[in-house]
Specification:
Chain lengths: 229, 482
């Protein structure tokens, strides 16, 4: 009769209770399904550790860490969660619970470039629903659209003064016409600045009393914009 | 107009008072050198010469009320923090997610040092030594600008150990969110900042007693903190002379929707709302009239055109049955069906409800479903009453005010546009009834059946069985049939 092998702690599952020990050294935190600790890219590990150093409690770094991992992996994949868990010394399940709460953290694979079209009330009064349709249609025409673009309607992005607008890889552009949609996607694919003349960064304040002098439109610094800047 | 030497302008010197937006588009204002050229950080030097208690007195004397939505007196809030040497925190709420609001975005992007200076002064008054700016993740440009400004401020000795040689030390971290409306709610924000899902907490204990990492925490909006340097420069009592007695100072107002010049405007509190919507923002497009407007973001009960002369300040708007909220005016013109406005509003809150409290989680969902029923022609006038009662059952029954934030505007729309809801309901029912029959739309349209005035169908007859001729003829009598 074969004897079922048990580990020291009495379980047949290795590390079943250790995974919840948040104080353990990173190398000992088992990955999903008891796999050995995943190799974390050095740059990602350094970035997450820098974030953790900012807070009295390292768990505060969950959002910036997940955002960093998403930048590397494209979405919060099990592998990405495992790597963050490894560095932060928390469980992947904990990170999954966090990632599933926030709109900007993707829990399934998405296109490389995010195109958030604001469809909240102010923008929709100015035609945002039609703009979203135009973006979706333009992305659908692209044979590679699904891998390239993550076009989605988004709640208020806080730029109702340029309604209807979109946030393209973090760069706010508006007001966009329906014809702009295809152009914007072309710009993204070509790696050009998106609709440079319509970028929020170049917009002056609307209040006529704010500026006592005439200031020229100062050039935005596109290099500082966007994810990963 | 000649260029003023001081960075701020008070009424009587050629135009309305401008404290926050003074020459805000000046190139280089976002850099430390540009900000200091305009007298930046002199308020901080002045504050550090005073005792923390004296700074707090100035804040109290200014009558400054929080600009994030609740309108709580800032000085009082600071004084709620316990004295002593425990770890205390200051968190700047830059998670500007209230639909229609975009004032903090403009401030952070164009004059980040004003926020940092105000934050340091507030931390000094409150005796906190750790601070965070929680900025929404969508504001990539603004967070980058803040990060760059923070590096400069640290290098110049404004942030860090023993600021400018004083006993006061402060650390400051810019923390980026990841897209959740609820994280603008103060306790949800704290949970999110602790690295959790952004679920609101039970209050009390209030954050001033037990907040971030269980320590006493002061939470203030970007605009509130950005106003602090002006208050220290002018003196609290001078500042209190601006605006009206219960709502002092200037306020940034974000105007959007159906207006010709949407954008941010700095106004003195207490001016007529009409002056903002028509005078500054240009009013609705040619030939259109204001149908309704949200005075303080999509969470505030709507007002109608006849309310345009209500003074724009905290108390006057409260008397008018609504609120100043975050200072975001959304104008809806008469070309938009009220149902569309209600639907957009309700769907937003349904999406953003965190799901912790049942009245909010279920109430927002059912409100959307009932609005869809109206649009699909499946509703009866009773549904409006049920929908109104759902709103009443949400208000005050949740941990935070997200549910209330849907219930208040939806409730006000049902109350103020009841006729239109009923008309929409009836015309949708009629359309549905006709589509259900064998006759085609176009044939019936030719008979003029679709042009019938709405509100004439018998309510108790199910829409699907409604025959085109079965009117009782008298508009408005259908309610008696229920």
């Amino acid at each position: 009769m074969s004897v079922v092998r048990r580990f020291e702690h009495g379980s047949r599952v290795p590390g079943w209770d250790e995974s919840v020990d948040l104080e353990k050294a990173p190398a000992e935190v088992p990955g999903v399904g008891g796999s050995p600790s995943p190799a974390v890219p050095e740059a990602l590990r350094a970035e997450i550790e820098a974030h953790m150093a900012n807070y009295p409690d390292r768990r505060s770094a969950a959002l910036p860490a997940l955002e960093a991992a998403q930048r590397v992996h494209g979405w919060c994949s099990p592998e990405a969660l495992e790597q963050v868990a490894c560095v932060m010394r928390v469980t992947p399940a904990y990170l999954d619970s966090v990632a599933s709460f926030y709109d900007m953290l993707e829990t399934s694979p998405v296109g490389r470039h995010s195109v958030y079209v604001c469809t909240n009330i102010s923008c929709s009064l100015c035609g945002a629903d039609e703009l979203l349709e135009a973006f979706l249609a333009a992305a659908a025409k692209d044979p590679d659209g699904e891998r390239e673009f993550n076009v989605r309607g988004f709640e208020c992005l806080g730029a109702c003064d340029i309604a209807p607008m979109a946030s393209v890889d973090g760069v706010y552009v508006g007001p966009l016409s329906l014809d702009d949609a295809a152009q914007v996607l072309d710009d993204v694919r070509a790696g050009r600045p998106v609709a440079p003349e319509k970028q929020l960064a170049r917009k002056l304040v609307a209040d006529p009393h704010a500026n006592s002098r005439e200031f020229p439109l100062h050039d935005a610094e596109p290099a500082r914009e966007g994810r990963g800047a | 107009m000649s260029a003023p030497t001081a960075s701020r302008r008070v009424d009587g010197e050629g135009g309305p008072s401008i404290l926050l937006f003074a020459d805000i588009d000046e190139p280089g204002l976002a850099t430390l050198a540009g900000y200091e050229r305009r007298g930046g950080y002199s308020s901080l030097r002045k504050a550090l010469q005073m005792t923390p208690e004296a700074v707090l007195e100035q804040l109290k004397a200014s009558g400054l009320r929080g600009r994030g939505g609740a309108g709580f007196a800032m000085g009082t809030k600071v004084s709620f923090l316990p004295k002593g040497t425990m770890d205390k925190y200051l968190v700047c709420n830059a998670d500007e997610s209230e639909p229609g609001t975009f004032k903090d975005r403009e401030l952070m992007q164009k004059t980040p040092h004003m926020l940092i200076e105000g934050l340091i002064i507030a931390a000094y008054a409150a005796g906190t030594n750790r601070s965070f700016i929680y900025i929404r993740g969508e504001y990539v440009l603004q967070a980058n600008v803040l990060d760059a400004a923070l590096v400069e401020a640290r290098a110049a000795g404004y942030v860090g150990e023993r600021i400018l040689g004083s006993e006061h030390s402060l650390s400051l971290v810019v923390h980026r969110g990841a897209g959740a409306y609820i994280c603008g709610e103060e306790t949800g924000l704290l949970d999110s900042l602790e690295g959790k899902r952004g679920n609101p907490r039970l209050k009390p204990p209030f954050p001033a007693v037990q907040g971030l990492y269980q320590g006493p925490t002061l939470i203030n909006n970007v605009e509130t903190l950005s106003t602090v340097p002006a208050i220290i420069e002018m003196g609290g009592e001078e500042y209190a002379k601006l605006g009206v007695e219960t709502s002092t100072g200037t306020k940034l107002v974000s105007v959007s929707g159906h207006v010709q010049r949407p954008g941010n405007y700095e106004i003195e509190l207490g001016i007529p709302s009409r002056e903002i919507i028509y005078g500054l923002a240009g009013g609705p497009p040619e030939g259109r009239a204001v149908k309704c407007w949200f005075p303080g973001g999509s969470s505030s009960p709507v007002l109608k055109e006849e309310d345009l002369d209500v003074p724009y300040d905290f108390n006057s708007l409260a008397q008018a049955g609504t609120m100043l909220g975050s200072g975001a005016i959304i104008v809806v013109d008469d070309s938009t069906p009220i149902l569309d406005v209600a639907m957009k509003t309700a769907k937003f809150y349904r999406h953003e409800s965190c799901g912790k409290c049942t009245p909010c989680r279920e109430g927002t969902n059912w409100t959307v479903k009932m609005l869809e029923r109206i649009d699909d022609g499946e509703a009866t006038p009773m549904d409006l009453e049920i929908m109104a009662s759902v709103q009443e059952h949400i208000i005050g029954n949740c941990l935070c005010v997200l549910g209330d934030a849907m219930a208040m505007p939806i409730g006000s729309m049902i109350a103020k546009f009841k006729d239109e809801f009923e008309a929409h309901m009836e015309s949708a029912r009629m359309r549905r009834g006709l589509n259900g029959s064998a006759a085609s739309d176009t044939a019936l349209e030719a008979q003029g059946a679709l042009e019938e005035p709405p509100g004439t169908l018998l309510a108790h007859q199910p829409g699907g069985e409604q025959a085109p001729g079965a009117h009782d003829g008298a508009p408005g009598t259908h309610r008696g049939g229920v």
